Amino acid sequence: MKNREILREGRFGQPLRLGGRWMKLALAAAVCALNLATVEAAWANSDEKSVREERIAEVRSRLNLSEEQMKQVRPVLQEAGEAQRTVLKKYGIDLDAENSPMPKLGMRDGRKMRGELQKVQADTMIRLEGILTPQQLKDFQTIQQERSEAMRKRIRGGI
Fold it and tell me: Burial, 31: exposed, middle or buried (Cβ in 10 Å; 0-12, 13-18, 19+)?
């Protein structure tokens, strides 16, 4: 059994060895699987970025932001989105994974999570007060409420 590993016993008690042609096939399959995982991860990141950009474009359009406002608002919204994803992941919720089941949260954890998300929203509003007009702030609050409701439905299984 020099340099070959025994994977399992064969039909007549003979060891099955992975060598030569089979070793090359196994190696090729492993490389393909690794490449596929890398491509899927890149697609997921690309999809996540496009969703973020769509949301930012929606805010820009609905609030009628100027170029200067957009330069200031974009980083605030990106940081708020990251903070929200961090809170959700802390409670086992990954909104990027479309088909994964949402965890069942107890009342206590649900309240904690809601409080943390509300804090992120409040911090975002404070940061935006110096950038947006009063009407734009009001419209942004409406957008936040719509998104909160959509997220709530998705978490509860109403996707």
Answer: exposed
CB–CB of 48/96 below 8 Å?
yes
What's the farthest any 2 CA atoms get from each other in the chain? 82
- Print the domain residue range for 78: 6-155
Per-residue model confidence as pLDDT tens digits over 136-156:
999 999 998 898 888 777 767
- Residue 65 lies inside a defined structural domain of this protein: yes
- What total number of domains does the chain contain? 1
The pTM (predicted TM-score) of the whole model is 0.61
Give domain status of residue 1, yes or no: no
